[in-house]
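fyi for ur records
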Amino acid sequence: MSEIAISVENVSKLYHIGKKSSGSLRETLTDSLSHLFRKNKQDSDETEFWALKDVSFEIKKGEAVGIIGKNGAGKSTLLKVLSRITEPTSGKFTINGKVSSLLEVGTGFHPELTGRENIYLNGSILGMNRSEIKSKFDEIVDFSGIEKFIDTPVKRYSSGMYVRLAFSVAAHLEPDILIIDEVLAVGDAEFQKKCMGKMQDVSGQGRTVIFVSHNMIAVKNLCQKAIILENGYVTFQGTSEAASDQYLSKNKGKSELPLSDRTDRKGDGRLKVKAISINNKNNFHVSDLVIGEQCKFLLEYDVIDSIDINYLFFAIQIFDTTERVMTTISTDEMGIKFNQVPQKGTFQVLIPSLNLRAGQYYINFMISEKRSQNSPHQIIDHLTHAISFTVLTSDFYHSGVLLRPSGFIQPSTISIQQ
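which gave:
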């Protein structure tokens, strides 16, 4: 018997932007019918987009493998191909065993059926008979935590309830291969923790798990191996530790370049941020900050184009090494706008008391414009991983005890009573 659970050989997937069909039966029929009512549809209106290009890898039985990549890298398309939701344009893949997948809210359930009926429906699709499903039924419902609503049509479920039941069914009906996308982010933190534990149990039982996530810690904890996708191509295959380091280091490396040399920025370039600095409470330029102290982020800019800029907006985003966003500071949300800016200047963001826990962080920034109050934002200058900084621990509460390096946000004031 083959020890290979999944074999993928030179799989590519081509989409035609402007064309509705993506390879599934329902969408193909819908597109064929709608085509009858289109007038003068020109092929030139369509743009080719390769979501996957010559993707090849093997996954052994019992392995837990993470799929890593930015949004648009091809992760979800790959999972849809492996789940046989859509067909590849070229290449081939072989799957040895029953597959259970949870890719997006709504996949696999019939909205008019109750939770109970959908459990039996999903089990039948996986090839299980009624007695086998019945033996697992109580365990599935108990894990999902929605026993009270099990005889309610799922169309009345919230997205969180839907995912709870869908994951519970996918994981408990003993598939040979479990495919899970980032959809678990819909659930609350407690349920996500339960899901991670269940996936570890599934992998420990010799079954195969494919897990897509932007959470590098989750990938490293769950998966032995990982694959990095970039613009539809596989750029790395190896241990989850090495894959995570490579994925993050590629972005970290950008922050070492002077901003004026960065060519990966977006926007029309009429205004350009040329330098970023961080000041501590004493107004010294630093790369290390201390929890609880005042700090200031300064973004120096030049106006490149002399055209007037109307309704200018500015935002920075702080995130950690696992790509989790800690906070977004936006003048748009604050109701602040600049109708005119000088040819040279500095945007300043003052944080009176930094409440991030100890660790390393990165900053994205975006300068955008609205032509009028109700028009959409037009990006002028946008850069990710623009600069990095480190937060150091401190005696935050003046208790004589240093804060431990755990968690993300440190409350500035708390009250404990007994």
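The longest helix spans residues 189-204. thats all i got for now
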